[in-house]
Amino acid sequence: MRRFLQVAWLVVRKDLRVESRNKEMLLTTLFFAASCVLVFSFGFVRGGEAIDGSASGVLWITIAFSGTLALGRAFERERHHDALRGLLLAPADRPAIYVGKLLGVLLLLAFVEALVVVMVAFLFRAPLFRHGWWLLTLLSLGTIGFASVGTLFSAMLLRTRSRAVLLPVLLYPVTIPVLIMGVSGTFALVQPEPDLALARLWASMLVFFDVVFLTLALWTFEPVMTE
Amino acid sequence: MNKRAFPALIGLSLVFFGVAPILIVRAPNEQEMGLIQKIFYFHFASWMAMYLAILVLGISSALFLFRRKPSADRLAVAAAEAAVVFGLMGLITGPLWAVKSWGVWWTWDARTTMAMILELILVAYLILRAYGGPGSDRLAAGLGMFAMANLPFLYVSTEIWRTIHPPTSVVPQLPVDFGLPLWWSVAGFIVLCLALLTARARLEEERATLDRLYLALEDE
Question: For chain B, what is the domain count?
Answer without folding.
Answer: 1
